[in-house]
Inverse folding.
């Protein structure tokens, strides 16, 4: 077991930790400092590699605080540190050119996330940052003495660092190395951690539902989350039916409200309107017009005018209507049941799909405990927290990486420029 020294130690070589190390290295280039990046995984950067279906959705062409959940006043200030334009320029400076897709998502023109990871690692090496994979940190202590330092206990010994950047991520995809152990490190250093739940996660439906028959089908849906009788979120987008339940961007974005409510012991319901943009009344009017103009057209053919045929068949069965019935022959009661099923469908959610399938973590270290101009802890001088470990989660579309880059920039630059802290200056 060895003991080594560093000016700056970053724990976690994911997106936020690598960004922090790069920005620290750059800021320290005029007055060289030892920067060491420790990661518990044998091969780090897994999440960058698997992100965006292997293409890494680096950011989005429009980023605003409303794309995130958490304290939006603080999030706004953090995001202001790195505009999307600056992010694009920063990546260009590392040899990664980005392209914009129709949805506004930005990807490397190579369509390979490996390009992004390699660029960050190369830049770390250029600035002399030492990256040590397979160095899992299990304990961090503040040293005794006049100057505040950190003694970091890892798999192969200890490292004493003047400043510490905690970039251990959340709990999503634990096999990548982000198993939530960073929360305990933060807690031991005096921070709080709000309850953590899977976000951007698919939802599992009751087996008796018709989802299996539609597996692979996508359609536009408006989802409304109602918690304890109150609507807390409403959004429209693409829903993907799968063999286990529902996925797709609108479901992923919605999932955090359901998982949070469940964690808090509240009753959450998810309703779907399969004719987004139309109210129940407007759907009734449309259906009645169709039934009047084409009374002999079957129900399934009528619904298929606006919905995928496979879905029309499934929803008719679910509403207890025979798809072959002529629309003009549908009894009033059945019509009303069908219209409510189409516009206020109650999804029978059993559970979320869990950490192995969640893209991010909702909850974490409260942003109020951080100085948003520097990402430095308000409780422990010399400690910085960046990325997913913080209580901030973005919607799907490159926002979570933008958060990682922006927080990494603030912490890296400040840590490299800051002076050592005498203990009596503690907050
Ligand atoms: C399948 C998937 C696809 C995604 N796609 C996108 C996308 O396209 N765009 C987007 O914006 N976001 C995407 N995300 C989310 C994004 O990957 C994360 O928000 C982001 O990686 C968080 O970065 P981070 O550096 O904070 O944490 P992480 O990337 O989780 O990195 C944390 C690192 O810390 C290390 N670590 C943890 N604990 C310890 C310890 N005790 N000691 C030492 N090391 C430790 C881990 O090994 C890991 O390498 C995706 C996520 C997943 C799972």
């Amino acid at each position: 077991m060895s003991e080594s020294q560093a000016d700056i130690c970053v724990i976690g070589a994911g997106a936020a930790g690598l960004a922090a190390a790069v920005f620290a290295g750059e800021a320290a280039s005029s007055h060289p400092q030892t920067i060491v990046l420790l990661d518990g995984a044998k091969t780090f950067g897994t999440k960058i590699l698997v992100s965006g279906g292997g293409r890494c959705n680096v950011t989005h062409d429009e980023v605003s605080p409303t794309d995130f959940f958490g304290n939006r006043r603080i999030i706004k200030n953090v995001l202001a540190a790195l505009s999307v334009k600056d992010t694009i320029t920063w990546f260009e400076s590392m040899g990664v050119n980005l392209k914009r897709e129709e949805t506004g998502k930005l990807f490397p023109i190579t369509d390979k996330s490996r390009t992004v990871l390699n660029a960050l690692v190369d830049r770390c090496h250029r600035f002399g940052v030492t990256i040590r994979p397979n160095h899992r940190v299990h304990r961090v202590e503040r040293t005794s003495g006049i100057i505040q330092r950190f003694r970091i206990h890892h798999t192969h010994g200890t490292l004493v660092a003047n400043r510490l950047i905690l970039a251990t991520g959340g709990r999503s995809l634990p096999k990548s190395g982000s198993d939530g152990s960073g929360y305990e490190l933060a807690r031991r250093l005096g921070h709080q951690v709000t309850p953590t739940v899977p976000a951007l996660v698919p939802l599992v439906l009751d087996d008796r539902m018709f989802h299996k028959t539609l597996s692979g089908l996508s359609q536009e849906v408006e989802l409304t989350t109602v918690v304890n009788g109150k609507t807390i979120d409403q959004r429209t987008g693409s829903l993907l039916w799968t063999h286990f339940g529902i996925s797709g961007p609108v479901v992923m974005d919605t999932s955090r409200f359901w998982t949070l409510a469940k964690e808090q012991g509240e009753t959450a319901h998810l309703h779907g309107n399969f004719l987004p943009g139309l109210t129940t009344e407007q759907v009734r009017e449309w259906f009645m017009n169709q039934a009047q103009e084409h009374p002999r057209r079957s129900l399934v053919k009528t619904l298929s005018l606006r919905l995928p045929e496979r879905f029309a068949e499934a929803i008719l069965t679910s509403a207890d209507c025979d798809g072959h019935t002529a629309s003009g022959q549908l009894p009033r009661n059945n019509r009303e049941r069908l219209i409510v099923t189409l516009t206020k469908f109650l999804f029978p959610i059993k559970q979320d799909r869990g950490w192995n399938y969640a893209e991010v973590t909702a909850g974490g270290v409260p942003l109020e405990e951080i100085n948003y101009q520097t990402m430095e802890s308000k409780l422990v001088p010399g400690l910085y927290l960046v990325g997913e470990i913080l209580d901030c989660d973005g919607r799907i579309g490159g926002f979570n990486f933008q958060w990682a880059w922006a927080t990494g920039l603030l912490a890296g630059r400040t840590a490299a420029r800051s002076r050592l802290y005498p203990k009596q200056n503690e907050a």
Observations:
- The mean pLDDT is 96.
